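Q: Entry one of two.
A:
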Amino acid sequence: MSLFFFAGCDTAGEPSTLRDMAEMGKGVTAGKLAINVQKRLTRAQEKVMQKLGKADETRDVAFEEMVSNFNKQMIEGSKLQKDMKSYLLAVKTMHDASRRLQDCLAEMYEPDWFGKEEMDALTEDTDTLWLDYHQNITDKSLNTLDSYLTQFPDIKARIAKRDRKMAEEELGKAQKIFEELNVELQDELPVLFDNRVGVYVNTFQGLAGHQEKFHKEMGKVRKLFRRVLLN
């Protein structure tokens, strides 16, 4: 008996067992190739997502800085508005005190004394200067601040809405609204932040100009008062 056992042959003359093994080998190789390709695709997708995530993270950091500047700007503007109102209240208090002193002087100044009519006219001029000073600061400085600060509530509400839509977007909702708000705010916030310089400059320049004019005109009136009192 032969020591070798031959498997049956198919019609092509090739041993069926060897052919089956070859086919199995091809299947294993193809399977490994598919797995390797899938792994590479997965890694590539992960890298893309990482890059996108980093880009989103960079944009979020930049936006958070804009929001931080906005909040700081809003606090500064509100404080300036509050202090300007306090200053105007002090001006009104000084005006009232000045008017009482002038009225007291007018009452004590007897009709037959020198310069009675001029004294009464100077009292009216003093009152008018105080009124104009208060009104000019209100019109040129306080109203400018008030107008400037009217922008903030709307933008603050839109920032809050953006944050809500961002949370909803993570759940697969409101993506379009979020993107629109995001673009609008990223355009508007830097412009608003830069505009604060012009507002502050105009506010304090106006205040300084009104102070200078007021004290200059008041100085002239005071000199006339002294001249009348010394004669």
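Q: Entry two of two.
A:
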Amino acid sequence: MLPAGREKRMMILLLALAGGAGALLRYVLGIVLSGWTKDAAIPAPMLIVNTAGSYGLGLFCGLYLQMVPVIQPEDPVYLIAGVGFFGAFTTFSTFSVETFQLLRQKSWMPALWYSTLTIIGAVLGFLLGYASAAF
């Protein structure tokens, strides 16, 4: 359950700060990775960021579940780290726009590869992160 009053405002502020940090890190990594992957047929920077972010979220969830039995959607730690930071760091909407751009360019195979690799990479990244928490 979300806190009321002053505590709720503090939670909103912390959520916004974590989201801002996640978005800023995604932006900076996107710039760095764009220089390394500029000749790729697919939007590799976002693929890498989403996979890495899914790994990080899996690691966070795996570690956090060692301390709490169940992660509740309104749990303050989950809200700040999971929803705020990792929610802003990874982005399904940018993935959707980039896939749409490939489809508009009639780049059918790159669009298919990008979509497939993003979904598989995100799920496997999360599972690997979660499993890593056990070590």
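A: Comment on entry two: Residues 5-36+44-132 form one domain. DSSP finds five helices and no strands in the chain.
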